[in-house]
What we know:
It comes from Youngiibacter fragilis 232.1. One of its GO terms (biological process) is phospholipid biosynthetic process. One of its GO terms (molecular function) is metal ion binding. Keywords: ATP-binding, Cell membrane, Kinase, Lipid biosynthesis, Lipid metabolism, Magnesium, Membrane, Metal-binding, Nucleotide-binding, Phospholipid biosynthesis, Phospholipid metabolism, Transferase, Transmembrane, Transmembrane helix. This protein is mainly alpha-helical. The chain has two domains: about 1-110, Helix Hairpins, CATH 1.10.287; about 115-230, no CATH class. It contains nine helices and no strands. The longest helix has about 30 residues, at about 50-80. The protein starts with a helix and ends with a helix.
Amino acid sequence: xxxxxxxxxxxxxxxxxxxxxxxxxxxxxxxxxxxxxxxxxxxxxxxxxxxxxxxxxxxxxxxxxxxxxxxxxxxxxxxxxxxxxxxxxxxxxxxxxxxxxxxxxxxxxxxxxxxxxxxxxxxxxxxxxxxxxxxxxxxxxxxxxxxxxxxxxxxxxxxxxxxxxxxxxxxxxxxxxxxxxxxxxxxxxxxxxxxxxxxxxxxxxxxxxxxxxxxxxxxxxxxxxxxxxxxxx
Length: 233
């Protein structure tokens, strides 16, 4: 019986974690960001102690977000109307997430200082030696393609909603341009992960459906490849 109770406790805890990841937008962002940071750590020369600090920092952020979710659910369960104390409780719980997130940014900055400075320098050099006109051409053409497609389909407005998602198109277009102009696998991976976060945020905010985001992403990706090929890249 004790073993069954222990297993049930683990199951309940895992169910809570899955619920938070599925339903909470910020939790999804934390998970994706944590994966990105851990992948980056694999390609850097951080020590075991630094890796331990990184894991503890990630755990703190996740725990704070879970605590915030629990507080919000409890308040929503106990009251269905506005109350100033409910506002205080929710804001205070959210503040714990904010503080741990700021701490995580500071920790990440110091742990990856050398990599950040190196990537920043390489990025500046990349911009200096790339064609700004080509980047501008891609941005304008992808934006026009999105607006024209929306006009033909007749959904949403030119700048919000409808088929396809303009944010997803631009995000994946930028990620594709970075992949063309950069020789770093890490930079390419991070660029597309950021594009995925942008696309996911459009679905989470219910501005676009998953289909609209996928079509927008493909439009930006394929249009950018076509333009770069035409210019001989």
